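Hey, I was hoping to borrow your eyes for a little while. I've been staring at a protein lately and its backbone has me curious. You're getting the sequence in one-letter code plus the fold written as C-alpha cells. Would you mind checking whether the C-alpha cells look sensible for this chain? Here's the protein in full, and shout if anything looks odd to you:
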Amino acid sequence: MPAANFHKGFVMIDNARLHYVRSGNGPAVVLLHASPNSARIVRPLQEIFGTSLTTFAFDLPGYGLSEPVPGEVTTSKVADRIAEGMKALGITKAVLYGRHTGASIAVELSIRHPDLASFVLCDGFPLFGKKYSDEDLADYFQIPTPVRDGGHLIWSWYRCREQYLFWPWNKPGLTTRADRGLPDAEYLHRSTVEFLEAGENLPAIYASAFRYDGRGAFHRLKVPVCFGNRPGDSQFKTMPTYPENLWTKEFPRDNTSAALEERKLLVGYASEPAPEPISASWTGNSLIRDYTEGASGQSYVVAAGLDLACRPLLIVPSIPGSHVDHQHLVETLGQHRPVATFDPRGFGESPLDAEQALTPELWAKQAIEIADALGWKNFDLLVSGTGVVTLPHLWDAAEARVGKVHLLSPAVAPKALRSEFAANYAPDITPSSEGAHLLRLWHHLRDQELFWPAYRTTHEARRTVEPSIEPAKLQERALPLLKQPRSYAEAWSAVWNTPILELLARIDFSGRAELLHREEDIFLPLLVHAEGALGLPRTSVMDANLAEHLRASP
C-alpha cells in the first residue's frame, strides 16, 4: 500500500508526545504492538484491516517516536496513556487489537476504560509459567552500549534473530527451541532498528508485560475479549491453561491467513465511525517535531521559533542525511528566528512511495512544500553538504521567495570526480541475512570522518581534523538512515550523478549567496570548486558560532 495511504502524527498527553499511524476506512480499530517494536511492525496488519476499518496504530510510550511515561511503568499506566491518546484523536469507541505486550495493554485498557472499547482481540496474550525475578529480567533485557567497532549492531541483530529461534531468547537449547522458522532479512532488519531505537527505554514496558497479572485480568473483563493464538507463537502452548469460560481461538500459522480471520472478527464488533483526521499545529516558539503535508507526501520536520517576527531559515541537510545533523542548531537558533529542518524524502520518518524516484527535484519539491506548510512566504536557506543538489530546482521554483542562501561546505565536484564518486563512494546497505549491512553503514559513516574520500583508506587520504566518531553520535546518525535502507545507495548515486558544478554556474545569485565552511566538514576539500563556479569567497565559521552568524542574517 502506498505511503500516501498512511497518515502519521502525534498527540500530546501530559506534555509527552504519543505517535500514531492512521490508515484505512471504516469504523475505528486501535492496534497495539509487541515489545520492543513500534507501530511499523503492524503495518502489514493495517494494510489488511484497513480495507474495512480505520486503523490507528500507536507507538507504545518509550518505543518508536513516542515519549515514555514517567516513573515506574505499569500496564495500567500505559493503558491510561493510550486511552488518553484515543480521546485526543476523537475516538469515542473502538475495537482493540493487541499482540503480546500490546495484548496485555489492550485488555487492561478495556477494563479501565470500557466506554472506549467494544471488543478486544488478543494475538498471543502473555501468560508465564513462573514469576520472573529482577535478576531474570535483567538478563533478558540486555541493552548493548554503542561501541567503536559497531559490534553492538551485530549483537542486536543476533539478539532479535534469536528471539525467533528460542523462547526465551537468552536460554537457547532444544527445550526452548521455537516452533517456527526465521523471518526474512527485511523483517529482521526492522526489528533490529526498533530494538536499537528503544535503547534505554526498552525494559520498562517490556518488563511490565512480565509483571502483569494476566490471569487476574480474566476475572475483571468488562467487554467481549477473544484470546487468540497461533501455532509457532511463544504463547501458543498456554492455550490449554485458559479457563473454559473464556473465549479462545486458534488462528492459522500463516500471517496473512490469520490477519484475514482477525479482520472478520474485528469488523463484527466495530460500529462507531472513525473521527476526522487531525493536523499538526505549527505555532509557538518551543521545539516542535511533527509532520507537514504536501503533494509528495508527509515530511518529518523539526522547527522552533515559529512565532518570531523575522525572516525564517529553512535548513536543507546533506543527503543522505536527516534532521539529526541540525537539530541542535534548530534549538539554538530558534531562540532568535523561525527555523526548521527535515528528514529528506526516503530517510528517517519522511516516507518514500514505491513509485517515487530519489532525485534532487523530489527533495527540492519537498523543501518548498515544507515552507508552504509552515506558512513561509519568504525565507532564507542554509544548504549543507550534498544538499546543494537541490539548490538549482529550489531556485527555479522559488527564487522570488528566497532571501539569502548560505552554502555550508557544498559538495560540488567536476565531472571526472563525480564519476569516480558515483562508482565508489557509497556501500549498499540493503538488509542481508547475516546483518553485515549494518556494519557497512557504520564503517562508511566512520570512515567519512577519517579519510577523504571515505573509500580511499590510505595514509595519503587520512583527514587531519578531530573526527566526530563517538559511538553514541554515530548511532544517532545511523538510525535514520537505517529506517529506509534501500534509499542509501540510490541517493548517493543521485547526488554524484547531478552536474551540480555546471548547474550552479548558471545561477545569478545577485549577491544573495555566501560560502561557509567549518574545518571539520567532510566535503571541505570540494569547496575550491564551489568558489570557482560561484565566484564567492569562503567564510570560515566554528560550529559553536554558526548559530550566531546565521542569527545576524534577517
